[in-house]
Specification:
Length: 248
């Protein structure tokens, strides 16, 4: 994987380049925020320090998000709540405060890249409508119909449902649902997943379609019912895709 590292401290940069190389990642190190916008197209992930000499890293992130969905892990000494929240809202996929254990950094990088690959696979799927009984979920259009009648969901309610419906019929862990819908922020909002699921069951009026698997997670649809992606009645060609996750 090609990593773009924006870090002005030579010692920190050298250590990171070495560790990333040892784990199979080729790293291009830049010192200035302007260089991020120059080199991001040839990179698979950005490690971004916020204390860059020419531009605040949060402004670099804002500018990058206007032109790219490149995965970004912020790695900075700036650990105040305001900066963390702003970084995540501006589009960082993860936010780590220095000093950080290298094993944790590598694990976070792996998690971010896995999420990115999964999202790209889902985005590339030809079939984007999932049916289970008389419930129809249009993943791209973000619409849900029950017995032909459209049901209004909040943004997070739909995100939870879509995560599960995209893998209809397969058990999905609670942690996977939280991670997919909320990313690194999921630890702070875990309890609200239960609230979203309760609201979804009430709005869909089909409680049996959202099954809780005790001690593990959830499943959308019945594995034996033919629920899955398709464009007509009955099982579509993509039947049997794993259940997605819902989170807080």
């Amino acid at each position: 994987m090609q990593v773009l590292l924006a870090e002005d401290d030579d010692g920190v940069a050298a250590a990171l380049v070495e560790v990333l190389y040892d784990h199979g990642h080729v790293t291009r190190r830049v010192r200035y925020g302007r260089d991020v916008l120059t080199y991001h197209r040839s990179s698979d992930l950005l490690l971004l320090d916020l204390g860059l000499p020419d531009t605040d890293g949060l402004e670099v992130l804002r500018a990058l998000r206007a032109v790219s969905d490149l995965p970004v892990v912020v790695l900075t000494a700036r650990g105040d709540e305001r900066s963390v929240v702003r970084g995540l809202r501006l589009g960082a996929d993860d936010y780590l405060v220095k000093p950080v254990r290298l094993a944790e950094l590598l694990a976070r990088i792996d998690a971010v890249t896995r999420r990115d690959r999964a999202q790209r696979v889902l985005a590339g799927q030809a079939v984007r409508t999932v049916r289970a009984g008389d419930v129809e979920v249009e993943l791209d259009a973000r619409r849900v119909r029950v017995a032909g009648t459209e049901v209004e969901l909040t943004t997070k309610e739909f995100d939870v449902l879509a995560a599960l419906a995209a893998r209809a019929g397969t058990a999905v862990s609670r942690e996977q649902v939280l991670d997919e819908v909320w990313g690194d922020a999921h630890h702070a909002v875990s309890r609200s997943l239960d609230v979203h699921l309760t609201q979804l069951r009430a709005k869909l009026r089909r409680p049996d379609l959202l099954t809780t698997i005790r001690g593990f997670g959830y499943r959308f649809g019945d594995p034996g019912s033919g629920s899955g992606p398709g464009s007509g009645p009955g099982p579509g060609p993509g039947s049997g895709l794993g259940s997605g996750s819902g989170g807080d």
